[in-house]
Each structure stands twice: as structure tokens, then as C-alpha cells.
């Protein structure tokens, strides 16, 4: 799958993913299992952004 985002939005997403943790996902998930799946998806996105050079410190 490929996603195209303007640089500013990609940076904003990377910042969010850097700051989001399990408790954030759990608060929005229907179950613990769903929270872990959401966390994993977020980490996959974070890694893909980092591969493209978008990795906030």
C-alpha cells in the first residue's frame, strides 16, 4: 500500500505517533486486543515515515 501526504501532514503524523502510547490507544479501543492492534499499526506507520526521513526527535 502507498500513501501520499504533504510534508507538513507527514511531520504532524510522525509527531503524534511519537507521543502516542498504549494508554492513548486503549482509551479509544473497544478491547485490549484492539488497542494492541492499533498500537502495532501506529508503529508500522512510524517506521515507514522514518524510512522516508520523517522521524522527529
From TrEMBL:
Matches recorded under InterPro entries: DUF7706 (IPR056123)
Protein name: Uncharacterized protein
Amino acid at each position: 500500500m502507498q500513501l501520499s501526504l504533504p510534508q507538513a501532514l507527514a511531520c504532524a503524523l510522525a509527531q503524534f505517533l511519537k507521543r502516542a502510547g498504549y494508554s492513548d490507544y486503549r482509551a479509544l479501543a473497544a478491547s485490549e486486543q484492539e488497542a494492541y492492534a492499533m498500537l502495532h499499526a501506529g508503529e508500522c506507520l512510524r517506521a515507514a515515515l522514518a524510512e522516508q526521513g520523517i522521524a522527529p526527535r
